[in-house]
Design a protein that fits this description.
mainly beta; 51% strand; 9 strands; single chain; 9-stranded antiparallel beta sheet; 0% helix
Length: 143
């Protein structure tokens, strides 16, 4: 399937508390979304924290057409941390990844043009000795 034809589909709803205290935005959630409790945005320093990791600001994102998973143009910001920074997957033997150690965390915050919803997309992945130990992708839409 073409990525431009994929659509985001709601799989449910949950209560998430969002607080903003002096530009520090925090989330509070339970159950499957409890991982949000360890993520916060530090707007004065333009960085995102995911547990003990600090994600630097990468870029503004401006999607101008509706050919995407959200079916709408949208604008936002992206923070990301990848370790090691110079990882070149092509240097690894894909049949034996036992010595691969890497991590990637990404947070995108945006505004969906057609609905006015705020998008918060959180992605985390860690591989230790070739085994994926952390893997999640959470798209959230706030009214």
């Amino acid at each position: 399937m073409n990525k431009r034809e994929m659509r985001s589909v709601s799989t449910g709803s949950a209560d998430v508390s969002v607080t903003n205290e002096k530009g520090i935005i925090r989330f509070a959630a339970q159950g499957k979304l409890a991982i949000l409790n360890d993520i916060w945005l530090d707007l004065p320093h333009n960085e995102v924290h995911a547990g003990s990791r600090t994600l630097p600001f990468i870029e503004a994102v401006n999607v101008t057409d509706a050919q995407n998973a959200f079916g709408s143009a949208w604008f936002g910001y992206k923070w990301e941390l990848a370790e090691p920074k110079d990882l070149d997957i092509s240097k690894y033997d894909m049949r034996d990844l036992s010595n691969l150690n890497a991590s990637m965390y990404k947070v995108v915050v945006g505004k969906i043009a057609t609905t006015g919803q705020t998008l918060v997309q959180i992605k985390g992945m860690e591989i230790k000795n070739g085994v994926r130990t952390v893997s999640y992708e959470i798209p959230l839409f706030f009214q």
